[in-house]
Amino acid sequence: MPSFFKGGIFLSEFSLVIKNAKIDDNKITDIGILNNQIKKIGKIDNGKNSIDADNHYVLSGFVNSHCHLDKSNLLDKMTEDYLGKTLEENRVLLKKLKSSYSEPDIEKRASETIERMLSKGITAIRTQVDVDPTAGLVPIKSLLKLKEQFKDRVYLEISAFPQEGVVDETKRELMEKAMELGADVVGGLPLVEEKGKEKIHLEILFELAKKYNKSLDIQVDETNDPRMSILPEVIKMTEERNFEGRVTVTHAIALSRFPTERAIKMIDQMKKLDINVIVTPSANMITRFTEVSDLWIRPSNSITRVTELCDKGINVSIGTDNIRDIFYPFGNCSMIRELHMLISATRMTTKPYIDAAIKMATTNGAKLLSLNYGIEEGKHADIIITNGSSKLDILNSDETIPCVIKNGNIIYIDENKFKGGITDVYR
């Protein structure tokens, strides 16, 4: 029974019903929600509140698998001479900006970014948060406050990120303190260590992850140059230390320039070890390197072998990465924009790859964060109603999300789109 009669009014078993929701290419149906969960998919007469999706696609909420909330909106503190620098130059400039960090400053900038992400349909976020001698523990403390503040509106997972390395004892101690404060994930960045110490960096990360029983999310191979690749060492350590299913690599761009046979062998190893991959298309494409006369090094960058990773069944998710900061001065927090860049740059233009890309931004990201996402009965009610009646429509839209539902509650709605918002059946 969809509802029952008591005391002169109808009481529904659903707190919210989404009517006429397109949930795959061939199915339009209703979705009944109760207690933060999708309770029914099928014909539903009414709910306590209802909203008409008008045959538009309904998806699980977007998951931003990789960003840097503590750095976001630093553009407002930058001057024109900060723009157009190489990756190495940007890291030097970042230290100047971070020297004036304060908790109120970070909280203000990061809060503004989270609010914009919510309006763009992002219901879950993994953020890398700097832990280093320049900023100390100020960024971690700030984001832990925001995690609590936004807990009812967005799922926020914090990765302690050693922006200036971890080999130095002082830097390692800061990472220990960050984990003790409550960081959820051990982050990593081998590239920032002195040449020859990248492996030690990885060893320390695995030790920290084991000590605190956390997963790893390591930024690897931000360049096209396979000679600098640290991914093979990550694969080796994952196997040696029995970390199957607990390791994520972000970027992995050098994989795009390994000979195909070698790259596929590495991907097969990653599949066996259940290693996740995160891509950040816009930031990857804009990253610049010093121009040198070398066959392997390009001043421009690329994106990892996304199609091959998908073909092999690797869990690939997507993130916005930097937003209006020293590394990427653009960005409007839109996952649709990132998907458009990804599909264009990697030519994911067939229907199976378009479907795969949408999954990267939704259920694949949810799997990475251990969230129970999907438009299925029993799944968590983090849902977005899109502007598109097809997945191509979604990708070609103006990047707005008309309705965002978190924990079964509408947290954002375009009332012009829905002509008055939700309908209360008691009225």
What does this structure look like?
The chain is an alpha/beta fold and 427 residues long. It folds into 2 domains: 3-60 and 377-424, Urease, subunit C, domain 1 (Roll), CATH 2.30.40; 62-368, Metal-dependent hydrolases (TIM Barrel). The chain is 33% helix and 22% strand. It is built from 14 helices and 19 strands. It has an 8-stranded parallel sheet. Strand 17 (403-406) and strand 18 form a beta hairpin.
Portion of residues in beta strands equals 15-25%
Give the low-pLDDT segments: 1-11
Shape: globular
CATH superfamily of the largest domain: Metal-dependent hydrolases
Compute the gyration radius: what is it?
22 Å
Helix content: 25-40%
**What is the residue-mean pLDDT, rounded to a whole number?**
91
Total number of strands:
19
**CATH fold call of the largest domain:** TIM Barrel
* Separation, N- and C-terminal Cα atoms: 21 Å
Number of alpha- plus pi-helical segments? 14
Q: Label the structural class.
A: alpha/beta
How many domains make up the coordinates?
A: 2
Largest pleated sheet: 8 strands, parallel
The largest beta-sheet arranges its strands as 8-9-10-11-12-13-14-15
Helix-strand blueprint:
Elements: E1 3-6, E2 9-12, E3 16-24, E4 27-34, E5 37-41, E6 49-52, E7 58-60, E8 62-67, H1 87-98, H2 103-119, E9 122-130, H3 138-149, E10 155-161, H4 169-181, E11 185-188, H5 198-212, E12 215-220, H6 231-240, E13 247-251, H7 260-272, E14 276-279, H8 281-286, H9 306-311, E15 316-318, H10 335-346, H11 351-361, H12 363-368, E16 383-385, H13 391-395, E17 403-406, E18 409-413, H14 415-418, E19 423-424
Parallel strand pairs: 3-6, 8-9, 9-10, 10-11, 11-12, 12-13, 13-14, 14-15
Antiparallel strand pairs: 1-2, 3-4, 4-5, 6-19, 7-16, 16-17, 17-18
